[in-house]
Design goal:
5 helices
C-alpha cells in the first residue's frame, strides 16, 4: 500500500498537510535559533510550536487509522525520545 493510500489523501491534500508541518518545523527552528543566541527570548515558543506540530500529526494519524499509536509504532517503530516527551509535557 502506498503512503498516499495509507494516508487516504490525494497528492494535493498530502502536499498541503506536509507543507503545513514543514512551516511549523521551520517556525520552531527559528525560535530555537534566536533562543540559542538570546536565552531570555522565546523561552517556551519553540517547545510550544513542536508540541503543536506533534498534536497536529497525532490528530491526523488518529483520523487515518482510528488510533494514532497504531500507525506511529508501525511506521516508525519508535516512541518520541525522552527529550521530546519532556518538551511535550510542558
Amino acid at each position: 500500500m502506498s503512503h498516499l493510500q495509507l494516508a487516504n489523501q490525494t497528492y494535493e491534500e498530502h502536499f498541503y498537510d506536509s507543507m503545513g508541518y514543514c512551516l511549523l518545523a521551520i517556525e520552531a527552528g527559528i525560535y530555537f535559533f534566536i533562543h540559542a543566541l538570546f536565552p531570555n527570548t522565546f523561552t517556551s515558543a519553540g517547545s510550544q510550536t513542536i508540541k503543536k506540530l506533534y498534536e497536529q500529526i497525532e490528530f491526523k494519524m488518529g483520523n487515518i487509522v482510528g488510533s494514532s499509536t497504531t500507525l506511529y509504532t508501525t511506521e516508525f517503530e519508535a516512541e518520541p525520545s525522552p527529550v521530546i516527551q519532556e518538551m511535550l509535557q510542558r
